Amino acid sequence: METIQRERGLKKDSHSVEVMSLAPTLHILYTCPFCWKVRGLVEYLGLDVNIVSVNGMKIKKEVAFAGDWGKVPVFTDEKGEFFVDSTPLLRHLDATYNSGKLAALGDKQRQDEWLNWADTKMSKATVPILYGTIGSALQTTTRISKIEKFGFFSRRLYAWAGFPVMWGIIAKKRVKKDGRKPKQLWHDLLTEFTDEHGEHSFFGGDSPDLVDFAVYGYMRSISPFPQFSLLQDHANGMEWYHRMEQTSQ
């Protein structure tokens, strides 16, 4: 699977708590946009991290060691301390393993504002583009059931019972509330984001900062799905996306 094969410099392990004392561990779903935010930075920094895929139907149980959080990503460091919530995780990884160099790029207030922009606008745009029509919703849940770690029956249950919920209850409300078709919404957001770069290659200037990795994570989470083609005719957005891909090579 393309999304898994593109991992660089990461150790994957089927165990979870048992390996925490040996190396940092990141519990993820492979299709989770919040996980992609953190994984992109892990790859960029070249960290030796065990990637643990959790069962999509048993997330709360599999990350119960992190208390009541009940979501992914969950990062556990060499000392066994766990950290949650993707944007604070970006800050933590940068501060702990990169001397805070990404957070120090540019103006802090501008960076904070755009991190919030990414988390409030781009995060909400991922559901409409993946589940905005009944056909795309079925494609998405079927694809997720093949990528993620599911049991034999839960895989089929998720694929065929999940799409009506995501389309009928969640995606339709978001599309109706925004008023734009999912493709137009994404194009508008990418235009707003890339316009903010000015003449620079990245939001952070000549190199990416935390905002770049946040936006990259949301966009990258769509890449395993056919709906990614809806973004590929946004020239500036895709040029920036490919530059981000190259930073981890």
Describe the protein in words.
The chain has helices at residues 2-5, 33-45, 59-62, 86-97, 108-131, 134-147, 152-178, 182-195, 210-220, 235-247; strands at residues 11-12, 25-28, 50-53, 74-76, 82-84. 55% of the residues lie in helices and 6% in strands. The protein contains ten helices and five strands; from the N terminus they run αββαβαββααααααα. The protein has two domains: 2-97, Glutaredoxin (3-Layer(aba) Sandwich), CATH 3.40.30; 108-247, Glutathione S-transferase Yfyf (Class Pi), Chain A, domain 2 (Up-down Bundle). It has 249 residues and is of the alpha/beta class. β2, α2 (33-45) and β3 form a beta-alpha-beta unit.
Low-confidence stretches: 1-20
Derived structural class: alpha/beta
How is the CATH topology of the largest domain named?
Glutathione S-transferase Yfyf (Class Pi), Chain A, domain 2
CATH architecture of the largest domain: Up-down Bundle
What number of domains? 2
Mean pLDDT: 83
In the CATH scheme, the class of the largest domain would be Mainly Alpha
Summarize the structure.
The chain has 249 residues and is α/β, with parallel strands linked by helices. It has helices spanning 2-5, 33-45, 59-62, 86-97, 108-131, 134-147, 152-178, 182-195, 210-220, 235-247, and strands at 11-12, 25-28, 50-53, 74-76, 82-84. The chain has two domains: 2-97, Glutaredoxin, CATH 3.40.30; 108-247, Glutathione S-transferase Yfyf (Class Pi), Chain A, domain 2, CATH 1.20.1050.
